[in-house]
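ok so i was messing around last nite and threw this chain in just to see what happens. nothing serious, just curious
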Amino acid sequence: MEGHGRTLAAASVAAVIGDDDLLREILLRLGFPHYLVRAALVSKRWLLQASDPAFLRCFRERHPPRLLGFSIDYAGRSQLVPLPQHPELAAISSRAASSCDNAFARRRQYIQHCRNGRLISMFLDDTGWKYALLSPLLVEESELVLPPTPTLLPHNNHTHLNWWIYLPEDGGRDGITFVRLWRAGRKVSAEVYVLGSGGWGVPSAAVTEIELPYPITGLKNMLYPVHGKIFTTITVGHTLGLDLSAARFFILEHPDGVGSNFMLSHADSGIYLVNVEGLQVSIWLHKLRGDDYGAGGWLLVDTFCVHEACTHAVGERWVGDCVDIVAVGDNAEFAFLNHAASGAILYVNLRSRVVEKVYDQHDSGHSPWYGYIRISPLMMIWPPVFPALNR
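result:
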């Protein structure tokens, strides 16, 4: 009878696991993307179910990619800081931090962009500045030095030059975008390169110039390519956009009351602008439709004060009523604020309005930094990297 019972139990399990609909429901409850990778190792059938695009869309809706930590660059220091996590994720973020510590110990590196679990760093060697691709969440991938970036093509004298480098959505090598913007008087020009298997190649957008009706105070705070467009702040009250496919500039005027303490964020339907005035946070959405570049203007999504939450998070070191916004997550889900007076870096969940202190510059052994701080959020890899299927 005992053997018969085990046979019936095995048959029942086989009947459940053999049902694709039930299998998808089971996989949907795993919680973390790397659990899907483990499940995919069971069989080809499980791999096909776990990696199905329709299933992955459902999984992402139920279990959005988690914020594991953030990289911070300031005052000659680079560090990957893991955030408190579920024990399973804490092990992953700790390994990532250790991997970055080892890379930073070999040479001084400045983190330029972080996306989908990978980072682009900039470092100086005997031949000049170079870029490297780091993959702290993928132990099988070693540091990769990128080909030298293109030299500036001959143009008229420029008075302001800036450049950025960005990872593609999948975080891989191919598709890395290098953007160079410069101005001469009221004219702005751009060169955009995309890294492929054959190198950087020719600019994907021809050099374009636009005559602006007002002086430009700088080119900064560029947002990585969104819906085929890039955006950068050019002066207080305005953002400059470049449509990559049309090689065409356009200008977005900021909402009334938005000063210089803001950052842009990717949105599924356009871009977000998260502004901080004093301790009042405002979140604006600018939708992009076709080639009208969001003619409908900005929509105020939310506004709230973080004074009480910030003072509680910082404690007795809190002084003043000023914080700088230093990073924003995709879809304006969260933001990082620098309270230089206390040395605290604050994480703000822009949906729940919860504020937490996640880094203390005093504890790190450095004096609080009132200058420029670069923070890049480190997210879980999405979609998961599944093993190759042998047909």
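not much to say yet. Residues 87-106 form the longest helix (20 residues).
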